[in-house]
Amino acid sequence: MNSGELIDIAVLSVIIASGFNVLLLGLLIVMISWNEGEIEIPYGRIAHERDLIRMTIIICSLVFVLGVICGEGGTLPREVGLFMLVTYVAYILFLLKSKRKRMETFESHETE
Hints:
Blueprint: H1 3-32, H2 43-70, H3 79-111
Helix pairs in contact: 2-3
């Protein structure tokens, strides 16, 4: 085996182990909370997560489209790396903005 095949095996092992762990954790959560009923979550927290989930779906879709259109031989073009870096910076700015907004809301409730 050459080192390329060993790297592929290592990466696949990590991905499969992570997927299996997520599956087991999900089953454990379902089994523990089976008789507990529904969990009430404030709308503000769901709205924050909703935006992040939408952004993740869009980013994954764009990377997939770039890979299909521009990818040759199973590799992604170099522009995808730059795109991922820009979206990561945008994600951090989004988190900072939402944190600042939450802090302002918290401070306004304290002064009342």
